[in-house]
């Protein structure tokens, strides 16, 4: 069993008085990429922000290695951010400051955490860019974000995230803004990172991306984890009705795109109107009266699933 | 480099256009008798005849225009008859350093002050400091400059002049820098503060709004995720972007102030600057002086605008596309 880099237990986050994350628990293991999937608004980005200390943690525990970080002061968080936990964002164009060179922005992060001269920081920046397979790295470091292609920008973003050798890299939909061929290259790069450099938590709404590059997966819906386990198990036999619906809405990974994608009927609930019982019940084909009570995550057939259909049958 | 040349060419065209417009207003308006206007009130017939010949008012309009431009910019011997044959172009040039000193100093003060206020407010938005400072900036913004100037004069020149606090204040007027740097500084300090007050208020509010708008942007989130301190984030990321809107506002304001917009401050503090000169020209209906000040003001505005564009190019690499590799 691989050792956990990150252990999240019963994480709750409250924003503007509404409970956005409701008792979220999962682990990120060394060398295994964790995928976090769910529809828009399911709380994936808020989870990432909570792990970065960018939104307050209402209750629960977040452990990096053996260190509890929930409840740290802002100053202590600042020392962790970028150094132990780093983040890659969806759109590398808007995530970089447009008026400073890419290299300068990477240098800035290095020098914020380590006492290094400008030239030493730049040397590390160039080396990182080379590792991220950016051609002509020294030259590229002097360029401005708008002068790089989308793929190169995202590589630079990953280089920046890795610049202080973090333990965990959170990538929030890192390929959504890129075209398909570049997308595959970036995912391959992240796979390599997870083996070599840091634990990777990959946020996506695309089951196809999970199948391609993750070892474990967490399925989120309306701020709640509904199913959790290894990718082979869950892709082969998704148990939760929401996971099944999500998979049905994903085209075959290598096959041709179907003319029409199946969609999940209805809208996900907003945090304000989240049902008392099972969060998926209003849209679920199997809903019955037992769903009025929120089912806990239970181990069933090699994974954890939160659904009354599988209770008692374990 | 091409864009720089382009800007300069554009500026030159604008200047020619303005000069034609001003010329048309004063000399080509039907029914206007420029000879009498230039000569001023109560001129003798000999002077009228001399002026008519000298300026070519007995010739076609284009000739008149070219004569006028020649007198203004090449020969620079345009003469004010109201003011006993004073040459007006040297007068404008003598007034320019006063205005430049006044506006330059005030600009430094208001930019420094507004950046300080804007950044502090954006760092702790909606806190007590933010509210107090924003209230203060509305106050500064809404105090009329001539009223503030008069009050300052009242306090420092007459009522409390002999107290410890204000005995350093020199009498109203301008002291050239080369004559006495410390005298220059003391004669301008109060005018600087008065002139900069409303701009400081306005700029602080603009900057705060820009910084607050920027704080929701992706690049600010990235900066936070990098583990930078709030001040670093605000200065290196927020301010670095918000400068762009700030610079264009700044260029326009400075240009119009240098071009005579500091008139009220100059009159209140008896500073013989370009604004003061314009004021005198208008009250005396001194047409040559009006021509000269209007055109030189226009030139300042155009030059300042070109400079702003160059600063823009320096600040925002996205505008530099076409140049090789930034
Ligand atoms: N600062 C905030 N204040 C209040 N509510 C918020 C805030 N940020 C996010 N939310 C709410 O939290 C919920 C989850 O948002 P989140 O951004 O985590 O979704 P997501 O899963 O990342 O979706 P997407 O796939 O669109 O990125 C949404 O309902 C959103 O409205
Ligand atoms: Mg998101």
UniProtKB/TrEMBL annotation, chain A:
The keyword Cell membrane applies. Belongs to the ABC transporter superfamily. It is a peripheral membrane protein. Its main location: membrane. It comes from Tanticharoenia sakaeratensis NBRC 103193. GO terms for molecular function: ATP binding; ATP hydrolysis activity. It is found in: Cell inner membrane. Residues 6-247 form the ABC transporter domain. Pfam families: ABC_tran (PF00005), oligo_HPY (PF08352). Keywords: ATP-binding, Cell membrane, Membrane, Nucleotide-binding, Transport. GO terms for cellular component: plasma membrane. The keyword Nuclease does not apply. This is Oligopeptide ABC transporter ATP-binding protein OppD. Signal peptide: none annotated. One of its GO terms (biological process) is peptide transport. Gene3D superfamilies: P-loop containing nucleotide triphosphate hydrolases.
UniProtKB/TrEMBL annotation, chain B:
Residues 96-312 form the ABC transmembrane type-1 domain. Keywords: Cell membrane, Membrane, Transmembrane, Transmembrane helix, Transport. It is found in: Cell membrane. It is a multi-pass membrane protein. Its main location: membrane. The chain crosses the membrane at residues 12-32, 102-125, 132-149, 184-204, 243-269, 289-315. One of its GO terms (cellular component) is plasma membrane. The keyword Disulfide bond does not apply. It holds the Pfam family BPD_transp_1_N. CDD domains: TM_PBP2. GO terms for biological process: transmembrane transport. InterPro entries: BPD_transp_1_N, MetI-like, MetI-like_sf. Belongs to the binding-protein-dependent transport system permease family. This is Oligopeptide ABC transporter permease protein OppB.
């Amino acid at each position: 069993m691989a050792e956990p880099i990150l252990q999240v237990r019963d994480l709750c986050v409250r924003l503007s008085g509404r409970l956005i994350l409701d008792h979220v628990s999962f682990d990120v293991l060394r060398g295994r990429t964790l995928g976090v999937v769910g529809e828009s608004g399911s709380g994936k980005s808020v989870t990432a922000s909570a792990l970065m200390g960018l939104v307050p943690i209402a209750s629960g525990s977040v452990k990096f290695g053996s260190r509890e970080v929930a409840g740290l002061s802002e100053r202590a968080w600042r020392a962790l951010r970028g150094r132990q936990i780093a983040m890659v964002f969806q759109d590398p164009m808007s995530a970089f400051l447009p008026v400073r060179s890419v290299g300068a922005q990477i240098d800035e992060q290095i020098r914020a955490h380590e006492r290094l001269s400008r030239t030493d920081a730049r040397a590390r920046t160039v080396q990182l860019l080379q590792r991220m397979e950016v051609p002509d790295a020294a030259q590229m470091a002097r360029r401005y974000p708008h002068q790089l292609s989308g793929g190169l920008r995202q590589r630079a973003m990953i280089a920046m995230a890795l610049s202080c050798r973090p333990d965990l890299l959170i990538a929030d939909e890192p390929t959504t803004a890129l075209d398909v061929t570049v997308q595959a290259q970036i995912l391959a790069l992240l796979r390599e990172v997870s083996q070599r450099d840091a634990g990777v938590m990959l946020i996506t709404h695309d089951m196809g991306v999970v199948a391609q590059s993750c070892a474990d997966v967490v399925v989120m819906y309306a701020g709640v984890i509904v199913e959790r386990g290894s990718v082979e198990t869950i892709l082969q036999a998704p148990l939760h009705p929401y996971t099944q619906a999500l998979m049905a809405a994903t085209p075959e990974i290598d096959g041709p795109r179907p003319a029409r994608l199946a969609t999940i009927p209805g809208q996900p609930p907003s945090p304000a109107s989240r049902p008392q019982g099972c969060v998926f019940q209003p849209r679920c084909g199997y809903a019955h009266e037992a769903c009025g009570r929120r089912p806990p995550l239970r181990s069933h057939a090699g994974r954890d699933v939160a659904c009354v259909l599988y209770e008692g049958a374990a | 480099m091409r864009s720089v040349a382009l800007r300069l060419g554009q500026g030159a065209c604008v200047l020619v256009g303005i000069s034609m417009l001003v010329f048309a207003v004063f000399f080509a308006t039907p029914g206007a008798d420029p000879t009498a206007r230039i000569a001023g009130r109560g001129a003798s017939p000999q002077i009228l005849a001399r002026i008519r010949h000298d300026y070519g008012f007995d010739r076609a309009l284009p000739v008149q225009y070219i004569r006028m431009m020649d007198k203004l910019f090449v020969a620079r011997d345009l003469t004010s008859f109201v003011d006993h044959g004073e040459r007006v172009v040297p007068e404008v040039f003598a007034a320019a350093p006063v205005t430049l000193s006044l506006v330059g100093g005030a600009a430094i003060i208001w930019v420094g002050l507004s950046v300080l206020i804007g950044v502090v407010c954006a760092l702790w938005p909606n806190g007590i400091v933010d509210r107090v400072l924003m209230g203060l900036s509305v106050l500064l913004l809404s105090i009329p400059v001539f009223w503030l100037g008069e009050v300052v004069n009242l306090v420092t020149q007459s009522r409390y002049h002999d107290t410890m606090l204000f005995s350093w204040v020199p009498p109203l007027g301008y002291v050239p820098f080369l004559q006495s740097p410390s005298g220059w500084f003391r004669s301008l300090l109060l005018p600087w503060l008065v002139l900069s007050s409303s701009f400081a208020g306005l700029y602080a509010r603009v900057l705060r709004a820009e910084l607050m708008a920027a704080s929701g942007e992706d690049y600010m989130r990235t900066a936070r995720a990098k583990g930078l301190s709030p001040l670093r984030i605000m200065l290196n990321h927020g301010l670095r972007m918000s400068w762009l809107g700030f610079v264009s506002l700044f260029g326009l304001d400075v240009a119009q102030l240098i071009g005579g917009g500091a008139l009220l401050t100059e009159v209140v503090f008896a500073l013989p600057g370009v604004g003061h000169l314009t004021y005198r020209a208008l009250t005396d209906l001194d047409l040559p002086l009006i021509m000269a000040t209007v055109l030189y003001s226009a030139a300042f505005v155009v030059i300042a605008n070109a400079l702003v564009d160059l600063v823009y190019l320096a600040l925002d690499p996205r505008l530099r596309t076409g140049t090789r590799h930034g």
